[in-house]
Amino acid sequence: MIFSEMKCHVNTSLGLVGGGDASPPCASACVCVSIIVNKFTCLDAYPLPNMQSVINNVTQYNWHSSLDLRSAYHQVPLLPEERKYTAFEASGQLYQFKRIPFRLKNAVPCFQRVINDIIAARGCKGTFAYLDITVCGRTKEEHDENLKVFLNAAKECNLTLNEGKCKYATETISLLGYHISKGVLQPDSDRVKPVLNMPVPRNSKELQWLVGLFAYYAQWIPGYSDKIRPLVAAKVFPLDDHAVGAIKVLKDDLSSAALGVIDEKLPFVLETDASANAISATLNQQDRPVAFFSRTLNSNERRHVSVEKEALATVESVKKWAHLLTGRRFKTVTDQRSVAFMYNSENHGKIKNDKVLRWRMELSEFEFDFAYRSGKLNAAPDALSRVFCAAMRENTLYNIHVSLCHPGITILNYCVRAKNLPYSVDDVRKVVQAGPALADAGPNARPGRGAQCAT
User: Fold this and answer.
1) The model scores a pTM over 0.90
2) Which residues, 6 or more positions from 430, have their beta carbon under 8 angstroms from its beta carbon?
């Protein structure tokens, strides 16, 4: 029975050597002829569209239709002289494919080329193909017109839609792992759900798996590099409150993640910042974030002075978004006057630091204007880079105060500034005045005078 159904499908859709067309297929079957054919097939390097470009284009529209082709590859015919290479034997008879079979090396690029050619030749506006096809419109009327044009083109080219999987005229759409609604991007809730429902890890293997899942969604989590540090550093199970709190923060950020669509017609503003352990950046358009970036500093980079860390944040973030920033003028904002001075083209001859000169060379192909903004106003990137410090236990500054043997305000504030920690003078003053500090010793108190410390 199974073979008879398979034979019916092979006769109609794929073609029996020496046989003609028959009735519609009775069942779907998958015959693998790819092992030998792929070995001797020259690669067709026709590229798939850039996934992020497809997402950015689709997000600019308000109405969408998602179209699925039935047995997509089987709708593209093979040249008669190439069919013989797909021949296979079954139950004493010889068969060959009349249409592109699945699992062939060049099936994907060939199918993508055919769909792109149809869209271009028929002038289908607001239509984007990444294997599946998405038809869009800014208004319902524009969407309906674009959809009508593509459906007519599909009919002319004998393309058959799988109506059970097609969705028409919706204001929200799930595409390539994203959920798109009214110009806002979010991660697909169905794919995020396993991460959000995962319990607290009980061993190192479960922890590694969770960290890997969070890493996959890092682009949605502001300050990811700092927020994940407590989990990366965790060695003891069960996890302490600090690590459990970090998991909750990451899940909350992921569940509420949302980004604006990148419109390449609008100017970009790049905001950067650095902390003791990480660098971060926010790419903005019209005062709203469209992309986040953060990276943990390695052991050598942590030894850089704070100014060099800020300069490094600019270099790394520009390289991260080079595909968006190349060939256009953008604005870079930092809360370090020294960094703005370093990268100002008018100050080229005044820079003597070899490291900074190398960074300037890396940025020489980009056109940008540097602007200084006070740290109080540089809130987004500043928060991303310092979130690890802010997520520490509330008594962290007190612990620092104790470890330094209760210094006065001046010494503690100097240590905070040297380590680029997110504490103000008022925070330092409160900790010094609240504990058994050497307040009476004044600014001459030294951390090393352990014998005089209060216990």
Assistant:
1) no
2) none
